Amino acid sequence: GPVVIKVSGKYVNPEKPGLVKRYAQVLHELHSVGYRLVVVVGGGPEARRYIEAARELGLGKSFQDILGIEASRLNARLLIYALHPNAYPEPPRSIWELLEAYSTGLIVVAGGFQPGQSTSGVAALVAEAIGAELLVLATTVDGVYTADPAVDKSAQLIPRLSYEEFRRVVRQSMSPGRYELLDPVAISIVERSNIPVRVVNGSDPENVKRVVLGEELGSLITG
Ligand code: U5P
Questions:
Q1: How far does the centroid of ligand 1 lie from the alpha carbon of residue 178, in Å?
Q2: ipTM (interface predicted TM)
Q3: Does the N-terminal peptide bond of residue 205 adopt cis geometry, omega within 30 degrees of 0?
Protein backbone atom coordinates (compact mmCIF):
# COMPACT_ATOMS: atom_id res chain seq x y z
CA GLY A 1 0.00 0.00 0.00
CA PRO A 2 0.96 3.67 -0.23
CA VAL A 3 3.35 5.17 2.31
CA VAL A 4 3.74 8.78 3.45
CA ILE A 5 7.16 9.86 4.70
CA LYS A 6 7.56 13.11 6.61
CA VAL A 7 11.23 14.16 6.63
CA SER A 8 12.40 16.82 9.06
CA GLY A 9 13.52 20.05 7.41
CA LYS A 10 16.72 19.65 9.41
CA TYR A 11 17.72 16.91 6.95
CA VAL A 12 16.44 18.23 3.62
CA ASN A 13 17.80 21.75 3.21
CA PRO A 14 20.55 23.60 1.30
CA GLU A 15 23.10 22.90 4.05
CA LYS A 16 22.81 19.12 3.59
CA PRO A 17 23.23 18.26 -0.13
CA GLY A 18 24.88 14.91 0.72
CA LEU A 19 21.95 13.85 2.88
CA VAL A 20 19.43 15.07 0.27
CA LYS A 21 21.16 12.84 -2.25
CA ARG A 22 21.02 9.83 0.10
CA TYR A 23 17.29 10.47 0.68
CA ALA A 24 16.76 10.63 -3.07
CA GLN A 25 18.53 7.26 -3.48
CA VAL A 26 16.45 5.54 -0.79
CA LEU A 27 13.18 6.99 -2.15
CA HIS A 28 14.09 5.98 -5.67
CA GLU A 29 14.84 2.41 -4.51
CA LEU A 30 11.51 2.11 -2.69
CA HIS A 31 9.64 3.61 -5.65
CA SER A 32 11.29 1.25 -8.13
CA VAL A 33 10.26 -1.84 -6.11
CA GLY A 34 6.64 -0.63 -6.31
CA TYR A 35 5.90 1.55 -3.30
CA ARG A 36 3.56 4.50 -3.93
CA LEU A 37 5.23 7.36 -2.08
CA VAL A 38 4.39 10.84 -0.91
CA VAL A 39 7.17 12.68 0.91
CA VAL A 40 6.48 15.75 3.03
CA VAL A 41 9.46 17.97 3.85
CA GLY A 42 9.68 20.33 6.82
CA GLY A 43 10.87 23.93 6.83
CA GLY A 44 14.10 23.41 8.77
CA PRO A 45 16.41 26.19 9.97
CA GLU A 46 15.47 28.55 7.11
CA ALA A 47 11.79 28.46 8.12
CA ARG A 48 12.77 29.28 11.72
CA ARG A 49 14.87 32.26 10.53
CA TYR A 50 11.97 33.71 8.53
CA ILE A 51 9.50 33.06 11.34
CA GLU A 52 11.81 34.75 13.85
CA ALA A 53 12.24 37.78 11.55
CA ALA A 54 8.48 38.01 11.10
CA ARG A 55 8.01 37.87 14.88
CA GLU A 56 10.53 40.67 15.35
CA LEU A 57 8.67 42.70 12.73
CA GLY A 58 5.55 42.21 14.83
CA LEU A 59 3.78 40.25 12.08
CA GLY A 60 0.91 37.94 12.98
CA LYS A 61 1.08 34.15 13.20
CA SER A 62 -0.59 33.68 9.83
CA PHE A 63 2.26 35.52 8.09
CA GLN A 64 4.82 33.62 10.20
CA ASP A 65 3.23 30.33 9.10
CA ILE A 66 3.13 31.41 5.44
CA LEU A 67 6.86 32.15 5.54
CA GLY A 68 7.45 28.73 7.11
CA ILE A 69 5.36 27.12 4.36
CA GLU A 70 7.38 28.80 1.61
CA ALA A 71 10.66 27.62 3.21
CA SER A 72 9.35 24.04 3.36
CA ARG A 73 8.24 24.25 -0.28
CA LEU A 74 11.73 25.35 -1.30
CA ASN A 75 13.24 22.39 0.58
CA ALA A 76 10.68 20.15 -1.15
CA ARG A 77 11.82 21.47 -4.51
CA LEU A 78 15.45 20.61 -3.66
CA LEU A 79 14.43 16.97 -3.11
CA ILE A 80 12.17 16.99 -6.20
CA TYR A 81 15.09 18.04 -8.42
CA ALA A 82 17.40 15.50 -6.73
CA LEU A 83 14.80 12.85 -7.70
CA HIS A 84 14.40 14.06 -11.30
CA PRO A 85 12.78 12.60 -13.43
CA ASN A 86 11.09 10.30 -10.90
CA ALA A 87 9.25 12.99 -8.92
CA TYR A 88 6.30 15.19 -9.81
CA PRO A 89 7.93 18.54 -10.72
CA GLU A 90 5.95 20.81 -8.36
CA PRO A 91 5.27 20.64 -4.63
CA PRO A 92 1.43 20.53 -4.38
CA ARG A 93 -0.10 23.44 -2.40
CA SER A 94 -3.29 21.75 -1.30
CA ILE A 95 -4.90 18.34 -0.94
CA TRP A 96 -6.52 18.88 -4.38
CA GLU A 97 -3.17 19.47 -6.08
CA LEU A 98 -1.70 16.57 -4.11
CA LEU A 99 -4.30 14.14 -5.47
CA GLU A 100 -3.69 15.37 -9.00
CA ALA A 101 0.10 14.93 -8.62
CA TYR A 102 -0.36 11.52 -6.96
CA SER A 103 -2.46 10.27 -9.87
CA THR A 104 0.63 10.44 -12.12
CA GLY A 105 2.31 7.58 -10.20
CA LEU A 106 5.45 9.66 -9.72
CA ILE A 107 6.95 10.26 -6.27
CA VAL A 108 5.19 13.36 -4.89
CA VAL A 109 7.10 15.75 -2.63
CA ALA A 110 5.17 18.41 -0.71
CA GLY A 111 5.96 21.11 1.82
CA GLY A 112 3.31 23.02 3.76
CA PHE A 113 -0.33 23.59 2.78
CA GLN A 114 -1.90 26.34 4.92
CA PRO A 115 -1.42 28.23 8.22
CA GLY A 116 -2.44 26.68 11.54
CA GLN A 117 -0.48 23.46 11.31
CA SER A 118 3.00 22.08 10.60
CA THR A 119 4.16 19.77 7.82
CA SER A 120 3.19 16.85 10.10
CA GLY A 121 -0.41 18.04 9.61
CA VAL A 122 0.13 17.92 5.85
CA ALA A 123 1.60 14.41 6.15
CA ALA A 124 -1.41 13.17 8.13
CA LEU A 125 -3.96 14.77 5.75
CA VAL A 126 -2.15 13.24 2.78
CA ALA A 127 -1.87 9.81 4.44
CA GLU A 128 -5.63 9.86 5.04
CA ALA A 129 -6.44 11.02 1.49
CA ILE A 130 -4.36 8.37 -0.28
CA GLY A 131 -5.22 5.57 2.17
CA ALA A 132 -1.63 5.16 3.36
CA GLU A 133 -0.82 1.97 5.24
CA LEU A 134 1.91 3.80 7.19
CA LEU A 135 3.05 7.32 8.04
CA VAL A 136 6.78 7.49 8.73
CA LEU A 137 8.16 10.45 10.68
CA ALA A 138 11.88 10.79 9.92
CA THR A 139 12.78 13.07 12.78
CA THR A 140 15.66 14.23 15.00
CA VAL A 141 15.04 11.73 17.81
CA ASP A 142 15.17 7.91 17.83
CA GLY A 143 11.48 7.64 18.69
CA VAL A 144 8.91 8.80 21.22
CA TYR A 145 10.37 9.13 24.72
CA THR A 146 8.87 9.31 28.21
CA ALA A 147 10.45 12.82 28.44
CA ASP A 148 12.51 15.07 26.16
CA PRO A 149 15.75 13.06 25.70
CA ALA A 150 17.69 16.29 25.00
CA VAL A 151 16.79 17.59 28.47
CA ASP A 152 16.15 14.50 30.63
CA LYS A 153 18.90 11.85 30.62
CA SER A 154 16.61 9.25 32.22
CA ALA A 155 14.09 9.52 29.34
CA GLN A 156 13.17 6.11 27.86
CA LEU A 157 12.17 5.24 24.33
CA ILE A 158 8.60 3.87 24.08
CA PRO A 159 8.58 1.20 21.32
CA ARG A 160 4.77 1.06 21.00
CA LEU A 161 2.06 3.45 22.16
CA SER A 162 -1.55 4.43 21.46
CA TYR A 163 -2.66 7.82 20.11
CA GLU A 164 -3.97 8.61 23.57
CA GLU A 165 -0.64 7.73 25.22
CA PHE A 166 1.15 9.82 22.61
CA ARG A 167 -1.07 12.81 23.46
CA ARG A 168 -0.09 12.42 27.10
CA VAL A 169 3.70 12.37 26.56
CA VAL A 170 3.96 15.11 23.91
CA ARG A 171 2.85 18.58 24.82
CA GLN A 172 1.04 20.11 21.85
CA SER A 173 2.20 23.51 20.59
CA MET A 174 0.40 25.83 18.17
CA SER A 175 3.24 28.34 17.57
CA PRO A 176 4.79 28.86 14.13
CA GLY A 177 8.08 26.93 13.92
CA ARG A 178 7.40 25.18 17.24
CA TYR A 179 4.82 22.53 16.49
CA GLU A 180 5.70 19.18 18.09
CA LEU A 181 6.36 15.77 16.47
CA LEU A 182 2.70 15.58 15.45
CA ASP A 183 0.76 18.84 15.60
CA PRO A 184 -2.86 18.86 16.88
CA VAL A 185 -4.26 18.55 13.32
CA ALA A 186 -2.00 15.57 12.58
CA ILE A 187 -2.85 13.66 15.74
CA SER A 188 -6.62 14.13 15.21
CA ILE A 189 -6.40 12.92 11.62
CA VAL A 190 -4.26 9.82 12.22
CA GLU A 191 -6.50 8.91 15.15
CA ARG A 192 -9.82 9.31 13.31
CA SER A 193 -8.56 7.18 10.40
CA ASN A 194 -6.44 4.81 12.48
CA ILE A 195 -3.24 5.40 10.49
CA PRO A 196 -0.17 3.74 12.05
CA VAL A 197 2.68 6.21 12.63
CA ARG A 198 6.31 5.10 12.88
CA VAL A 199 8.80 7.56 14.41
CA VAL A 200 12.46 7.01 13.46
CA ASN A 201 15.72 8.93 13.46
CA GLY A 202 15.94 10.60 10.05
CA SER A 203 19.65 11.44 10.24
CA ASP A 204 20.16 8.13 8.41
CA PRO A 205 17.80 7.66 5.41
CA GLU A 206 18.36 3.88 5.69
CA ASN A 207 16.15 3.99 8.82
CA VAL A 208 13.26 5.10 6.59
CA LYS A 209 13.90 2.24 4.19
CA ARG A 210 14.08 -0.26 7.05
CA VAL A 211 10.69 0.65 8.52
CA VAL A 212 8.97 0.88 5.12
CA LEU A 213 10.23 -2.67 4.47
CA GLY A 214 8.65 -3.74 7.77
CA GLU A 215 11.48 -3.63 10.30
CA GLU A 216 10.62 -2.68 13.88
CA LEU A 217 12.61 0.43 14.73
CA GLY A 218 11.93 3.56 16.75
CA SER A 219 8.34 3.92 18.02
CA LEU A 220 5.03 2.78 16.58
CA ILE A 221 1.91 4.83 17.37
CA THR A 222 -1.37 2.99 16.67
CA GLY A 223 -4.96 2.76 17.85
N1 U5P B 1 3.53 25.58 8.27
C2 U5P B 1 2.18 25.91 8.17
N3 U5P B 1 1.33 25.06 7.50
C4 U5P B 1 1.73 23.89 6.94
C5 U5P B 1 3.10 23.54 7.08
C6 U5P B 1 3.97 24.39 7.74
O7 U5P B 1 1.76 26.94 8.64
O8 U5P B 1 0.90 23.20 6.34
C9 U5P B 1 4.45 26.54 8.90
C10 U5P B 1 4.51 26.42 10.43
O11 U5P B 1 4.78 27.67 10.98
C12 U5P B 1 5.67 25.46 10.61
C13 U5P B 1 6.62 25.95 9.55
O14 U5P B 1 6.23 25.51 11.90
O15 U5P B 1 5.78 26.29 8.44
C16 U5P B 1 7.68 24.95 9.11
O17 U5P B 1 7.14 23.65 9.03
P18 U5P B 1 7.63 22.51 10.03
O19 U5P B 1 9.09 22.29 9.71
O20 U5P B 1 7.46 23.04 11.45
O21 U5P B 1 6.79 21.32 9.78
A1: 9
A2: 0.99
A3: no
